[in-house]
Queue: 2 jobs
Job 1
Amino acid sequence: MNKILIVDASASDNRVMSGLLTKAGYDSVVAESIEAGKTEAAELPPGAVIVTAMRLPDGTARELINWLKAEDYKFPVLAIVENLNTTDAIDVMRGGGAVDIIQRLAIDKQLVETVGKYARPEHIVLTLDNQLIPRISEEWKAVEEKVSAIAATNANAIVFGECGTGKEQIARQIYQQSSREQKPLTIVEAGSAPFIGIHDPTSDRSEVYNRMKSYFAKSAGGTIIFKNVHLLSFEKQSVLLHILETEHPDVRVICTAEPELLKMVADKSFRPNLFFILRQLDIAVPSLKEATEDIPAIADFFLKQYAAKTDNGRKHLDASAVKALKLFPWPGNVRELKDIVLFAAFHAKIDTISEADIKFNLSEPSADDSLALRNPLKERDMIIEAYRRGGNWKQAAQLLGVTEKTLINLRKKYGIDSNGEIQP
């Protein structure tokens, strides 16, 4: 199991990073200063990776990297960037010796997959590549149909979905099925501290404009995918709006966004005029809790990949494991399912994975998707949904946070029969 050293002064982010890495099968250790990081680094085994903040109470990432070089340690170093200017980011990548960067705002999306590029060879990390994972639900079939319909046009589009639902894969599919597929594709992380596009210091235009404009020049005739467009700063929103509204580049723009973008448009923290230019068409990606019938198929897909990469025998989920996976609320969706399934595959002693092998992260962020009964106007639908998830009324009562007797009375109140159907 690879050891990952986290050198960061933020206690809350350290907990998040440690939790993510543990779920993915890594062994993490935390240091909150350069000096503590040096002590821990001296104890690291081969195959380890170091993740460090750019600035710490007693120094900078570059100082830590220089010490590692002086001691002839060759562990790959990943730098966490946040609200930094472009010069700082380039400094730590080119001159400073970091092999890659992770945006602090996108730790949950980038950490595990970025670490997986450099942790060798003890641990197998599967990344979500460009293909769509086979799924069987009607909700997913509707997504696939929408992808084909949007790909047949040249309209800009936004792919909406919760964290970890595979929005980028869907955006790439639109590009690959479109008439622009033979022209360039550029992927831009909207939440990155600096854009990495080209800047001409002699230009009289702003640096943000030059860098963003370079993406459009690079993608002429093709497509730009703005990942997590809701993280675009107001300045970058204004520049993007200017380019699209006044220069009309021959580039299709596909964005991915979490549902909070709609709230941002309503409260004007995201420019409505830009939003409507970007959202000529849209796709809503269902969360796992909305399509629980897809969970066994997705899990099996990852188990097949894991077996192929490790040259081990393929493992399977038994009925108890499938039931446990279906009952979990999945705030991290497909990405989280992947990590938990791979952790189970790594630790299961036999080829069959049972509920006992499934380890859910207890530090999940709270979400407003609880099935606890609060709103009388929604109670009937929530009762039916709990029955669908749980498979029986005992499990439904647990999901709803009520006693079985209370649930029986509620079923009578709303006319719900023993099969979860509304009686005429």
Note: The chain has a mean pLDDT of 86.
Job 2
Amino acid sequence: MQENRNTQFTSRCDGRGTVCIDTNVVLDCCKDRDCFEDVRVYLCEDGEQMLASGTNIRTKYAKTLWAFVGVEEVPFNCGFYRITVRYYIEVGFEGCVGIGKSKCFNGLVVLQKEVVLYGGEGRAISFSSDPENNYCSIGNTDNMKTNDPIAIVETVEPIILGSKVVDCSCPCTPCCDCCSEIPDVVSNYFNGTFNTADTGHNLYVSLGIFSVIRVERPTQLLIQATDYSVPDKECPPAQSNENPCAMFRTMAFPTSQFRGTTTPLGELPTGNGGGGGCGCGNGK
């Protein structure tokens, strides 16, 4: 059987040589800063009550709960794909309900953007072995894959740019089609159903989002292997110390968590102008 081996991928006994790996190659990518201005916030019953009776509503936070990423081939442009990204963002608010009293509530914002990136060409179909499929149970699981491009979106938490309450007794921006199809992974964060009517008072926010979008495709690459990745460090045994204070004294002080600036310590000013030599200058 030795003669059946592919000598192109063989390596020497010391783990060095040319090896073939199965990975994803990035074909195209882009970065963007999107400003979504005056986007409708969809509230549940408790949020609607706060909006109707509360005053001085302020925005506290914005958190991305989930994102849908779709890939669709652009007609008459071989190799190019339209990437549709739909963000589902939870926005937290605080409103005054009386003198010295406040109440928090949250709502949902749905944002969508589209970009066109190059994803290459190819329609190969591959099948892989599955331990659950043996000779007598063929076809119990789906082991078919394609080499279609994959879109990946990386983002940070949204930045709140502003908010306002609008009286929608006059015509307002209608609900988008995507707000009526909220996935379960998003709706589970809220208590109740969302009100999508365009009457009464509606809440709007403006958000800024930084994102990086890339398109990848499965491929096989030949690389030069220098050595196998075997760690040299041995696994130390866990120490069970019954004295919690003794364990606490062994922990390093988290200096970086108390530092309010990213300026290296070596670059801090050392003058005597009211700072006492601690880097606190006299305001000049």
Note: The longest strand covers residues 17-43.
